[in-house]
Amino acid sequence: MVAGSIRLEFSGTPDGFRSAFEALIAETRVRRRVELVFEEIVANIVRHAAPAGAPAQVAVAVDVDDGGITLTFDDDGVPFDPTALAEPVPAKTLDGAPIGGLGVGMVRRLARQVEYRRTGESRNRLVVTLPPSGIASPVR
Fold first, then answer.
1. How many domains does the chain have?
2. Domain of 40: which CATH number?
3. Residues 22-33, buried b or exposed e (16+ Cβ, 10 A)?
4. What is the pLDDT of residues 75-99, one digit of tens each?
5. Cys bridge to 73: 37, 80, 100, 126, which one at CB 3.0-4.6 A?
């Protein structure tokens, strides 16, 4: 596997999300795990990070090496630590299953490691490291 990096910066809006996702697909041969993590985390930032009105500014770095793939999400939205969320209780029936609220748990199960910190610059930084199996390297 060839090491490499991709950097994306975009407005935390649905249009910014779409543009960044298209750029990610264009720049990498991504596997479904990377797509799912990117989509879940950025969708949550777009929906929940911005305080009243103004979209959050988002930066995503994707780094690939022999140890796996690391996605670093950085935004200036309201503080939110997804690692502090409790695992959702599985529904007993399909009718009783909640809509939403399962994505962070899915990201945790896909990842080898998930770390959050609030930076000194008042930004959320979430680092998700996926194991190396089945990962494609950036296209150059």
1. 1
2. 3.30.565.10
3. eebeebbebeeb
4. 999 898 988 877 776 767 777 766 6
5. 126
